[in-house]
Design brief:
The protein has 25 helices and 16 strands. Mean pLDDT is 78; it is low at 1-20 and 441-446. With 658 residues, the chain is α+β, with helices and mostly antiparallel strands. The longest helix is centred in the middle third of the chain and has 43 residues, at 225-267.
Length: 658
């Protein structure tokens, strides 16, 4: 530092440092202590108030300026430390999720670490419960209070309710206001843990609110916009982590449930299946036949010790079932007075109810996991009832489920081979996968799995069971697996069958390459699915297509990443597509037919039913828009590929569930 600078600095201190002023010395002492402590806005506000009472004039202004610089430095230090630590925690949470850590570990990690870096007294997560009507505390850090650990309150109550409703962060610098204490959870934090300030943020994932995150301190505190922004980002990541952990936990539960039900079907029969389902749902369950006679019942002891007669109004249920001219074929809710309701789940065999699962509860969209478990139990029970009728029907049902798992890769290779041995399915001979869909989009919209199953059963009956003994239903597609040598004949028979019996249903059939190993069936299924989707490109008279026949198109669409394909399409057709969208012209169709006819004007005009000169004008207009010379063979080839990509992507988008 040069002499003038030192002289200048000495001058500054000579103005501000009054060595004889004890108040000023006290202020410097307090400042030195304050600078060593973590930053708290309220503490610095109090310190500034003290300065205002002890100093005045020029000294006050100079001191306030110096203190402001020191405070800003401390604040930036705190913000940086908070944001850096937050990012570290987010990374650790994501690591835990990717390693499939259980939900309770994700919750504990989220609350413990955020409380630590924010210097909060309490950090908690309250999740929306299964009813969608309450907030339930599921993670608590900084307190061992039993009431807090199990606390729940209505979803729309108080400040927490506003956070849920608005889905935005609320910062309360001082909760000792009456309106804040109207919130039961905040009031409990105030009374039990002497909380005086808090931040309450929503946990939202996929536009769905799953809970709230609260960090609270035992002193009033103003939160900066920066910290609130960091809190929002942290909560977004936490919500994703919680949701992923929940989804994985649900998948494990459902998978375990399916295996247990399958075992019970062979071990204890109806009683074991109903018991497992009751334990999973934590509900009472009644199984009756189609006439209302009780086959089995399981009373959940965890929620009631009453007898079956006191839980289920058997005379009422029997009367309701017997009074139906047509048995219930879909899930139905029966009400007994104002307080009791039953959900009736029919178990179907050949589209007729042969039994009912009756549960004293009304289910809604929040009970997705329970409904999946009930559906699994219905399928297993259906197998048991089918077993009582004919051995062939049992085998058919097992094969249908097996093929579904085989083509979607839902089981390990070991499990697939084990089940194949049980079903006497051999992988020694090559097979092909046939997929049957409907060209007409309206047909697909009105086609449910029930109707498709009827088609499948009818085909089995008319064409012979042995010809399509491996089949399943997936969405609006009938999937058939046949030996390679039988593929062509079966395809011909299916087309003849639909032409004769369902002339208004225009079908598409896709055929895969030959597959041999169990692990090859997933790719074979995808090949057949793509071939079926591409049938429409080959004209109305084309009803089936081998994946092998796709040629270059098959190679182009081998990848599931279509970004490069869209880029290629837009390069050659983007301007024409935009023009046609704005002007509703027929230029794309005219170009397609023109290229299909090898640029022959006369043949193209005849096919399009337009005058020769009209076609010439259209082609010239196309050249102007896309700025390409159609006399170039390379341009024509690129345009044919772009047109194929355009039609295929359009077909895929229409047939992909939203």
């Amino acid at each position: 530092m040069n002499e003038s600078a030192r002289s200048h600095n000495k001058g500054v201190y000579s103005v501000t440092l009054h060595t004889g002023d004890s108040d000023y010395k006290d202020i410097l002492h307090e400042l030195s202590i304050l600078a060593k402590k973590p930053y708290h806005s309220e503490t610095w506000n109090t310190f500034r108030s003290t300065i205002n009472t002890k100093l005045s004039g020029n000294t006050l202004e100079m001191t306030k300026m110096s203190i402001s610089i020191i405070e800003n430095t401390k604040k930036r230090e705190y913000d940086l430390r908070f944001s850096t630590k937050t990012l570290e925690i987010i990374q650790q949470i994501n690591t835990e999720v990717s390693s499939l850590a259980p939900l309770d570990k994700i919750l504990k990690l989220s609350t413990d670490r955020l409380r630590s870096i924010s210097k909060a007294t309490i950090a908690l997560i309250a999740q929306v419960d299964s009813s969608g009507k309450k907030l339930q505390v599921t993670a608590l850090s900084g307190s061992s209070d039993e009431e807090l650990q199990s606390f729940q309150q209505p979803l729309a109550t108080g400040i927490c309710g506003e956070v849920v409703k608005q889905e935005k962060v609320y910062a309360i610098p001082n909760i000792e206001h009456k309106k804040n204490l109207n919130d039961p959870l905040i009031s409990l934090l105030y009374l039990k843990e002497s909380i005086r300030s808090l931040i309450c943020a929503p946990l939202v994932v996929n536009k769905e609110l799953i809970g709230i995150f609260i960090i609270a301190k035992d002193h009033p505190n103003n939160s900066s916009p920066f910290l609130l922004d960091v809190m929002i980002k942290y909560c977004n990541q936490t919500a994703i982590a919680i949701n992923n952990a929940r989804l994985y936990a649900n998948e494990l539960r459902v998978s375990s449930m399916h295996k247990e039900l399958f075992q019970e079907a062979f071990n204890q029969g109806y009683s074991g299946i109903v018991g497992k389902l009751s334990d999973f749902l934590n509900e009472h369950i009644l199984l009756t036949d189609e006439l209302g006679n009780v086959i089995d019942a399981h009373i959940s002891q965890s929620i009631s010790n009453m007898s079956i007669e006191n839980i289920f109004d058997l005379p009422f249920l029997t009367k309701k079932v017997l009074s139906k001219i047509e048995p219930y074929s879909t899930t139905t809710v029966l009400h007994v007075g104002k307080e009791t309701s039953y959900s009736i789940f029919p178990i179907l065999l050949h589209d007729k109810a042969v039994a009912y699962l009756i549960i004293p509860k009304i289910y809604n969209e929040w009970d997705h996991l329970d409904l999946v478990a009930i559906e699994q139990a219905k399928n297993i029970l259906s197998l048991k009832f089918t077993q009582e009728h004919t051995g062939i029907e049992v085998e058919n049902r097992l094969r249908l489920d097996y093929v579904y798992d085989l083509i979607l890769g839902l089981e390990t290779e070991e499990d697939l081979l084990r089940r194949a041995r049980y079903l006497k399915i051999s992988f020694q001979q090559p097979r092909q996968i046939i997929i049957l869909t409907f060209k007409n989009h309206l047909d697909t919209e009105h086609l449910d799995s029930k109707r498709l199953s009827q088609f499948s059963e009818k085909l089995q009956y008319d064409l012979g069971f042995s010809k399509i003994h491996l089949s399943t239903i997936h969405g609006s597609k009938l999937v058939i697996i046949v030996p390679v040598e039988e593929t062509d004949l079966l395809t011909k028979n299916i087309l003849s069958y639909f032409k004769e019996n369902y002339p208004t249903n225009d079908i598409s059939i896709g055929i895969s390459n030959a597959v041999l190993e169990a692990t090859e069936y997933v790719s074979g299924y995808n090949e057949a699915k793509k071939a079926a989707q591409f049938v429409n490109l080959f004209g109305e008279k084309k009803h089936f297509l081998h994946y092998n026949d796709l040629g270059i198109i098959g190679v182009i669409f081998e990848s599931s990443n279509y970004t490069s394909l869209r880029t290629f399409k837009n390069k050659y057709l983007g301007k024409l597509i935009n023009y046609e969208g704005q002007n509703k012209s027929d230029l794309i169709q005219s170009l397609q037919v023109f290229l299909d006819n090898e640029s022959a004007y006369q043949a193209t005009a005849k096919q399009l039913h337009v005058h020769y000169n009209t076609l010439r004008y259209r082609i010239e207009r196309v050249e102007e828009i896309i700025q390409l010379d159609l006399s170039s063979a390379q341009n024509r080839l690129n345009l044919q590929i772009a047109l194929a990509i355009h039609q295929l992507l359009d077909s895929l988008s229409k047939n992909t569930p939203q």
